[in-house]
Write a structure and sequence with these properties.
Oligomer: single chain
Number of domains: 1
CATH superfamily: Phosphate transport system protein phou homolog 2, domain 2
CATH architecture: Up-down Bundle
Largest sheet: none
Helix content: over 70%
């Protein structure tokens, strides 16, 4: 006879598997969105937009799985925190993918011949977000609060890069007309990258909660 604990372990493993599928998709979408920006590849940008429905579907599956665990297996203490944290993390991963999709949509509206502006800072923000996403889910998998805090600390670098990029773009807007909306497009891309950093920090907070039962403010 299968014990409730083994049922809980099996159900949690399925949630984990789906969360990491979501992570892979979010990471790929962000990576491709930054590549689409760098190369002004409209086909790649459109692929990102089209793939977003898969992420939404996975989030709904995880929601159902977590609610079923809560309703039928009655997890206690650490298991309960893990289920709640996993449910919240799935929402953050879906929103990260949404931000990547928004970047792709912006690329579709840009002038493909214009590569001006603080592209180096935007690229650095994208690279840092991708690294943080991998590391924060490693922290989740290993229940590593030290790594979760380390990831959250890197959000300050994203904020600094965002400030540098936006200052440069605002200076350009004050000195010349933005007839093609290029600067405005880049400002919005910086915004979405900064928000991705915040979403990853939220995941780091959920990891700390899952392990310690404390609710930190790592932002």
């Amino acid at each position: 006879m299968t014990t409730p604990h083994r049922l809980l372990t099996r159900a949690e493993a399925q949630v984990h598997q789906n969360l990491f599928t979501m992570t892979d998709k979010a990471h790929k979408s962000l990576e491709q969105a930054m590549e689409a920006l760098k190369t002004q590849n409209a086909d790649l940008a459109q692929d990102i937009v089209s793939a977003d429905l898969q992420q939404n579907h996975l989030m709904r599956i995880i929601e159902r799985e977590c609610l079923q665990i809560l309703a039928t297996l009655e997890p206690k203490a650490g298991d309960l925190r893990e289920v709640i944290a996993s449910l919240q993390i799935s929402t953050e991963l879906e929103r990260i993918a949404d931000h990547a999709k928004s970047i792709a949509n912006i690329v579709l509206g840009m002038d493909p011949s214009d590569f001006s502006g603080p592209m180096d800072r935007l690229a650095a923000m994208g690279d840092l977000c991708q690294t943080m996403l991998v590391q924060v889910m490693e922290a989740y998998e290993n229940m590593d609060t030290e790594l979760a805090n380390h990831v959250a600390d890197h959000d300050k670098q994203i904020d600094e890069l965002d400030e540098e990029a936006c200052s440069s773009l605002m200076m350009t807007l004050m000195t010349s007309a933005d007839t093609s909306m290029h600067c405005t497009h880049l400002l919005w891309i910086a915004y979405h990258l900064e928000r991705i950093g915040d979403r990853i920090t939220n995941i780091a907070e959920r990891v700390v909660f899952m392990v310690t039962a404390e609710t930190p403010d790592l932002g």
